[in-house]
Design a protein that fits this description.
Elements (H helix, E strand, L loop, with lengths): L1 E4 L3 E5 L5 H8 L15 H11 L10 E7 L5 E12 L2 E10 L8 H16 L4 E6 L4 H9 L3 E8 L2 E9 L2
Antiparallel strand pairs: 1-2, 2-3, 3-4, 4-5, 6-8, 7-8
Helix pairs in contact: 1-2, 3-4
Length: about 170
Amino acid sequence: MNVLETPRLRLRHLERGDLDALYALYRDADIRRYFPEGALTLDQTREELEWFQHGHPERPELGLWATILKEDGSFVGRCGLIPWTIEGRDEVEVAYMIDKPWQRRGLATEAARALVAHGFDTLGLPRIIALIDPAHVESIGVARNAGLAFERTIVIDGVTSALYAVSRP
């Protein structure tokens, strides 16, 4: 089931058949170097896939979604909107992860912009954030290109993150 489309991408709910492609993405230590848990095992990937297969269990309109290149149907990554509670405040994070063969083509920015618009226009969210490792320059660029601005540095469970945010216009 499609969640949304962009000119080049289709974001849809994850399916069991996505496991191999998702695992290829998640086991790549280079792609996962800015994530505190690092690369994931097949079992960890399967667990995440099952968790998000039909949207977030408490907020089904949110989740991580398969990101598919419309041109040829390739699984290029996973992107979405995920809920957080940070310092007692409910937040929704725009998340994007594009596999290496498709990086540097503007796909993450395209997905992030569409997700921000979807969050505001369709879901009526008041604000969208991104939590980014301060050393992840590429991800910071995507957040900025999607309209998010640096707000502050925070520490969650011992992990330092730059919090970028944008409020609904």
